[in-house]
């Protein structure tokens, strides 16, 4: 996959746990164009291993002199966010993928309802810039834990004016999805990005209220979880690759020299999907792409985030 060589131009501490990073292209040229909702995958060398994490672009698509992402520090993660917070400074050189949009605004929508929870606000920052430029009708509903976690509140007030609504968990404020989704005009599209319970609740509410499935959009990147070691066997090359407990199946294959496909690396797009030939254990699905029926069938797996509780897993690659 083609990559861009970038330099970190600026790092801002937004809250106690959120930093914003500004990237410029190393050669001084403008960066590739993108649309609101796009993400890039950032490569990081952590203790001799390459980690690749997806992050939404939050800067305005109208300005390609730089890209901006925001990273929430997760101390119990595998280290990507900690690396970004502790090791990445102005002047740091990184490689990123070209932007990909799996969470685009549907421009045929008569109105757009944007729902964000916590750091899930980031893809909406670039979407709002697009919506403002188009003069589109939209509302933003942004929920966060406490005033200390209100990342970008002042910027959102300036961008959205009276179209933004804030919900503070510590104050007992909650989004009433039933009320919100019941009072929208025909042709409205709804978008949600945030913690899994919030995403699931909105999707279920929309389904219950009869919203067309193609009018409801969600994005949620999963981090590869830590698990037990197992061996993955590739049918075409007959390679046997040990997947350590602290490495995803996709990362283990890449480290072994396998040119495995990927796009989001967060269990959202299905680009890395592999056919399962056999296993002597159970598949542990952590993606948001496969249906419940596909997960139960057990003949597909997304190696970017899912793994297996077994000794050997045979896949068609």
UniProtKB/TrEMBL annotation:
Gene3D superfamilies: 3.10.20.30, Nucleotide-binding domain of ferredoxin-NADP reductase (FNR) module, Translation factors. Residues 228-317 form the 2Fe-2S ferredoxin-type domain. InterPro entries: 2Fe-2S_ferredoxin-like_sf, 2Fe-2S_ferredoxin-type, Beta-grasp_dom_sf, Cbr1-like_FAD-bd_dom, DmmA-like_N, FAD-bd_FR_type, FNR_nucleotide-bd, MRET. It holds the Pfam family FAD_binding_6. Residues 1-106 form the FAD-binding FR-type domain. It comes from the Bacteria. Coiled coil: none annotated. Keywords: 2Fe-2S, Flavoprotein, Iron, Iron-sulfur, Metal-binding, Oxidoreductase. GO terms for molecular function: 2 iron, 2 sulfur cluster binding; metal ion binding; oxidoreductase activity. This is Ferredoxin-NADP reductase.
């Amino acid at each position: 996959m083609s990559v861009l060589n970038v330099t970190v131009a600026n790092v801002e501490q937004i809250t106690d746990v959120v930093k914003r990073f500004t990237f410029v292209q190393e050669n001084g040229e403008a960066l590739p164009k993108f649309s609101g909702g796009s993400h890039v995958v950032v490569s990081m060398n952590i203790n001799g291993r390459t980690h690749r994490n997806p992050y939404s672009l939050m800067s305005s698509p109208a300005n390609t002199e730089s890209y901006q992402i925001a990273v929430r520090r997760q101390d119990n993660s595998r280290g990507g966010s900690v690396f970004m917070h502790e090791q990445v400074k102005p002047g740091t050189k990184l490689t990123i993928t070209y932007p990909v949009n799996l969470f685009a605004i549907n421009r045929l929508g008569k109105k757009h309802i944007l729902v964000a929870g916590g750091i899930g606000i980031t893809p909406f920052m670039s979407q709002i810039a697009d919506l403002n430029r188009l003069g589109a009708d939209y509302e933003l509903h942004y929920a966060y834990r406490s005033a200390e976690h209100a990342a970008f509140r002042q910027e959102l007030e300036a961008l959205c004016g009276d179209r933004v609504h804030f919900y503070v968990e510590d104050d007992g404020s909650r989004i009433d999805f039933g009320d919100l989704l019941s009072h929208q005009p025909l042709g409205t599209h709804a978008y949600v990005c945030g913690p899994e319970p919030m995403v699931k609740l909105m999707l279920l509410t929309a389904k219950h209220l009869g919203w067309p499935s193609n009018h409801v959009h969600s994005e949620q990147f999963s981090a590869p979880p830590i698990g037990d070691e197992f061996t993955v066997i590739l049918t075409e090359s007959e390679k046997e690759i040990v997947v350590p407990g602290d490495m995803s199946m996709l990362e283990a294959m890449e480290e072994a020299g396998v040119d495995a496909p990927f796009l989001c690396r967060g269990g959202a797009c299905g680009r890395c999907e592999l056919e399962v030939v056999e296993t002597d254990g159970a598949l542990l699905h952590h993606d948001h792409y496969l249906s419940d029926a596909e997960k139960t069938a057990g003949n597909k797996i997304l190696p970017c985030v899912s793994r297996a509780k077994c000794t050997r897993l045979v896949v068609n690659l």
